[in-house]
Amino acid sequence: MSPRIRNNVARFSLCVAAAGAGLAVLYGFKTTDLLFVVAGLTGFAGLLTAIVAVAGFGSAQGRAKAIGAMLLALISLAGLPFVSVVDQASSRAHSQCSLKQIGLALHAYEAKYDHLPAAAICDREGRPLLSWRVALLEFVEAESLYKEFHLDEPWDSPHNLSLLPRMPAVYRSCGTQTPERHMTFYRVFVGPGTAFERDGLSLGTDFPDGTSNTIFVIEAGEAVPWTKPDELEYHPDKPLPPLGGMFRVRNWLDRIQFKSDLTQACFADGSVRVMSRGAPEAAIRAAITRNGGEKTDLSQLHQ
Question: Were both Cys, which of 52, 110, 189, 266 would link to 103 (CB 3.0–4.6 Å)?
Answer without folding.
Answer: 266
